Amino acid sequence: MPTGVHLRDARQQLFDAAERVLLRGGPSGLTSRAVTDEAGCAKGVLHRHFSDFDAFLTDLVLDRAGRLEREAGALRAAAGSGTVARNLTGALFTLFGPVPMAIIPLITFRDELRTRLRQLMPGGGIAILAQASDAISAYLADERARGRIAADADLDSLTLSLVGGAHLLFAEHAPAPPTTAAVDALVTTATADATRRRPA
């Protein structure tokens, strides 16, 4: 086992290693030893950067949630172009990709991680799902402002339908994603009424 490997940008390399372990072995396989073995470094490297393993996992989730927030910006930038259904379908594949779908059960699996996330971010107890909900809700509001979604559409219910339905659909097919046709069918059904009607 290597003990003297120097990691440049150790935090990100440890995060990337944890991501690979999580995707391969699930929450139960994600231990500090598994992470440092995957990164090819001594176990002490992780503890030099983080007070304990839950602190490491908390920062990992926050880092990956930040990536989703950037993807949310790309979704909002698409408002007014293409079709609402196509934009949402593409976004769901990103928001519920392999890494986000692996992080959701990790948060469920570790009580201390969930507690720390609640203290650090709104909706932290369901981080990733909260980011997905915020992204979809903001995008729908932008499309409603442009007249591509009915003015009286209930965006909270629509967001819940899309996020909840997508989570179930992607979880059912994990680790492989569902087909584009299946996701498009979900989106089209959920948004049909809101996109068919127009503001007065």
How many alpha or pi helices? 10
Assess the beta-strand content as a share of residues.
Answer: under 5%
Helix content: over 70%
Largest sheet: number of strands, sense, barrel closure: none
Rounded to an integer in angstroms, the radius of gyration calculated over CA atoms is: 19 Å
The CATH architecture assignment of the largest domain turns out to be Orthogonal Bundle
The CATH topology of the largest domain turns out to be: Tetracycline Repressor, domain 2
Q: What's the mean pLDDT score?
A: 89
Structural class: mainly alpha
Q: Based on CA inertia axes, which overall geometry fits?
A: elongated
Tell me the name of the CATH class of the largest domain: Mainly Alpha
Helix and strand sequence: HHHHHHHHHH
Which ranges are low-confidence, i.e. pLDDT below 50, for 5 or more consecutive residues?
Answer: 1-5
Number of strands: 0
> Distance between termini?
68 Å
Task: Describe this entry's structure for a reader.
- The protein folds into two domains: 1-49, Arc Repressor Mutant, subunit A (Orthogonal Bundle); 60-196, Tetracycline Repressor, domain 2.
- The termini are far apart.
- The protein is elongated and about 60 Å long.
- α8 (129-145) packs across α9.
- It contains ten helices and no strands.
- The model is unreliable at 1-5 (pLDDT under 50).
- The protein is an all-alpha fold and 200 residues long.
